[in-house]
User: Fold Class I SAM-dependent methyltransferase from Ruegeria spongiae.
Amino acid sequence: MDWEAFFTLHHDLPREGPGAPEDVDWVLDETGLTGAVSVCDAGCGPGGDLETLADRLPEAYLTGIEMQAGFVATAARRCARFGDRVQVRQGDMAEPGGPHDLIWCAGALYFLGVTEGLKSWRSALAPGGFVAFSEPVKLQDEVPQAAQEFWQEYPAITDLSGIAARVDAAGYDVLGHRLIVGQPWENYYAPLRRRIAELRAANPDPALVEMLDMNAREAALWEAASDHIAYALMLVRPR
Assistant:
């Protein structure tokens, strides 16, 4: 990965993956969390969901954890208006501190593995605490070629029952799920496509051209099979 090219493309994008404020609303409605709770956004990227969580939980204390320094800086700027109750730090999302009433992880738990990550987070949860994470999900056995190519680099993708089995293996119960399909993906790809077009017009160097091409192909594959490409937002809790 050419990280300089990556961050030239992804600098200050609003999101680093599919999602929408409604996803946060669903989790908060399902959990009933309110007041001065502790929330961790593990792998917070540029802070899109962290900002929404802080908006929706005006008395909460939130921590965003992110490995990439560029995203840490963006998330910190984005959430500066919330003052000291929102902290963003560079670090490993496998070590989220705590205890937290909610660990939120949008499209990043697969870096740790669902079972492995949930096991490591058990000690970071307050009694009765929740984990909400989104994971690639296969909607049906037969999918278009574009969807197959889209997920080619993630062969561990399963259907919902497969995700539930990995959750169960970690000693957690599934409390509910919500499919992330369609518009939440456009929320990610629309700004990305605009940035690609801007950078192509600015005579990019070969490394950046390669990065633009790779991301443009990903966006095109999603467009070709958008009804068949999804994440499952899973709400789980330790047994």
